[in-house]
Each structure stands twice: as C-alpha cells, then as structure tokens.
Amino acid sequence: MKKRGSYIRERYGRNSYRQNSACRWNRRRSSNERYGAETSHSPQSSDSSTRAFSSASSSDASSSVPELPGFYFDPEKNRYFRLLPGHNNCNPLTREIIQQKERENRRLKLLEEEDMQKKKTTRIGLNPLPLLNKRQLGLLYSTNYCRLVHELRVNCMQRKKVEIQSPDSSVVGTDHFKFIVADTARERIFTVNDVEHGGCKYGIINLSGLGTKALTVEMYDNLYFTNRKVNSVCWASLTHPDSHVLLCLMGIAETPGCASLLPASLFSNTRPGDQPGMLCSFKISTAWSCAWCLNPQANNCFSTGLSRRVLITNAVTGHRQVYGTNSDVLTQQFATQSPLLFNGCRSGEVFAIDLRHRSRKGQGWKAARFFHDSAVTSAQVLQDEQHLMAADMSGKIKLWDLRANKCVKQYEGHNNEYAYLPLHVHEEEGLLIAVGQDCYTRIWSLCDTHLLRTIPSPYPSSKDDIPSVVFSSHLGGPQGVPGLLLAVRQDLYCFSYN
What we know:
By secondary structure, the protein is α+β, with helices and mostly antiparallel strands. It has six helices and 28 strands.
C-alpha cells in the first residue's frame, strides 16, 4: 500500500492526491449525515416533505423539463407522451388538441369565477367610496369621475340570458347569429342569422324589453333570405334616421354580387308609424365593406369597398364615383364634420378620400395615409375627427393622430390571426370593446389603454362561434339600461350594470 500511495503521489502530485482524499471523505460524511437525518426524522415528517417536494416539482415540471421534438410532457402524469399525426389513429395526440384542451380549461375557470362573482378591481385603489369622496372634495373632474364609474360598473357586469320572443315561435332559437348591428338610438338591432341549408336570414330585434326584470325582447323576421354570404352590414338613413339597412352580398356562380338597401318597415312592428320604404339593389362585384354617409355634402350616398376599388354611389340618382386603390378595401367609415371617407386595406394601408377632390387620378385625393403591418379589419373615427382607431389581423389595435400620421396609443391583448373582426369605440363611457378570434370579449380604457375586463364565451372557442356584441349606456332607447349585448350561436346574453 505504501508503494501504491507513493506512486500516486509521484504521478499526480501531492495537491491532487489531497483533493481526491478530501472528496472521498466528504462523500462518506454526507452519506452518513443523510442516513442519520432519515433515521432521526419521524415517518410523518418524511411523508410531508415528500408531498411538498412532489407538489413543487409537479407545478414546475412543465417549465423545467426540456422540450423534446415530437413529444409532449404531461405534468400530472410526470411523463412524456409521443405526439402522433392527426390521421389513421383512433386517439391521436396532437399539439392542436393539447392547446385546445388548455384553452377550454382556462375558459371554464373564468366562467366559474364570473358565476362566483370573484371580480378583481381594475385598478389599485379604485373603490366606490374613495372615488365618491374624491368627487365630493373636488379632487376629480366630472369627466374623469364618470369614466372611472363606468370602469367600476363594467367590472361588475353579470351575465344573464335574454329570452327572445317572436310571432312565429318556430323560428326562435333555431338559427345561429352571425352579425348584430345596433341603430343610432340603440333601440333596435339588425341580425343576420345562418340557416341550416345554407345562406342567411335577416331580422330586427326590439330592445325595449331589456328594461324589465324578465329580460324579454321581440324579434321580427321576414321571408327575405339569401343563399349568398353577407360580407358587411350597416344602418342607412335614406328617408329618415335609420330607415334602411345596407347589406353587401357576395356573388356566387353566375350571380353577381350586389349592395341592397332593405327598408326597416319590411320587418313588421319594428317601430310604430314606419311607412313602407324604398327597396333598392345595386349590382356590384364582390364588396368587402360598406358605409353610409351622414355628411350633408354627400347626402344619400353610400360607399362600398371592392377589390382594388372604392365605389361611392348615390342611392337616389344612381350616380357613381370610382377611386382606384392598390389592395382590397376591408373597412370603411365616413366622417360627419368633414367630407372624408376613411378606408382600411388588406395591404395594411389606411387612407382617407377627400370627396371634394374632383380628379381621381394619382394620389392627390388621399387626405391622410399611414400603414399597419397586416390587413386592417376595422377603422373607427373618433368624434373630434382628428384621431382614428384601427385594428389589423395581427391583433394590433392602434390609435392614430391624423394630423401627424403618428400612432399615439396601442391597446394590448387583442387576439386575431385572419378573421374580419370589428371594433366598438364608446367615447362617452371611455371604453373600447373588441371580440377576439379566441372568442373572448375584451374591454379597455380608452384613455390610458388599460385592459379592464376579459369576458369568456359561454360556448367553447370555435372559429364558427365568434360572438357579436353591442354596447351602450342606454340599451333600448334614451331611458334604456346600460350594458353589453352578446350574441353567440342561437342565444342572446345581456351584461347589465348593477
């Protein structure tokens, strides 16, 4: 042994020999300490420590384990599972199915929290009593006080199902909602429903019953339906405010697309005193969007956004003006104080057309111009007509200053990849509302971009079941109730203020 020890010291040196000896001694000591610790602790303490370790490891398993290509780690079972392709298998485990399951669990959890009324305050220190005290002491302006009160009430809205009644009871609850669009007074909503055999059916719902405890509304439909896809809908004021509804229908086969003006009087008993209106139809190639002009300088005119064109038509005379663009026009809105038409394109361009410019050659008729990174699906002009809110297919929502052509605010959290989704701007309440492609309804503060609330859909998320919403502080008319209407599948829900 002495010869072997001297040989090791001569070959590796004295320092390394000492280090190796110390390491062996430390290993023996640590093993003895572990053995003594295990024998000294009681079985109950060892079991509790084991449970604590297992719970901590399971909670961090999904984040600590490495991701293996073609495998999925289940933190509950603490093992990997192979991801299979989605064909020729009885029970395929794909990444899409796993993500869908996680989204559904998150949706059910949010629904349970809403049913249990577990609401979190939207801001730190935003409570009713301190807010009222500040208002009484003069520390808050009336506009700021009203805005914060709306934020509080939006956070406390509760979901209630609305009963829909109709003279023809056989048509209620059978067709899924596709669009709901409210008129200017928020007394009626125009509905577009998908029918089972294909195509769409129209109707008008009177909201006067929302003020009662029964939450019952009346729906009046008509025999009018179409086997073509409805791309866009807006209310039109041809003979009197909100006298008609403007629809853009996509052409199929040999049938060209068209823009139709349906009088609201076609739907019986929608408003007392309504006279039979004028029914118009204009043959137009595929129109992606439409807008009605309320500016007196372009009276009785509406616009349709086509593929690489903007077509402005006078509904009475039939006179048309054509403006060439570089892309499909997906969204439009007229300004009311100035003769401008704002357009959002598939290329991401947002521009305004000055209707007073006679020459339509070149780019001189474009009054404003800026760009998003993807297709613009919604553009809303604010009341001062110096700012514009725009949303695109990448989920970006931006507020633009039209004077400087500069983005001044951005609202985070919206979800969109390829869908045509509208925005709802309510300046009186200081709110911005949008429904994402994930079927969540999100409400932001218009002033400081703070996300106030996220409302899950009552049904599982699906690209065919994206809700359509209407918000107002007077649903059903000037004396109506404030809140949110949400239409999904064949149901209508009301989120009213408490």
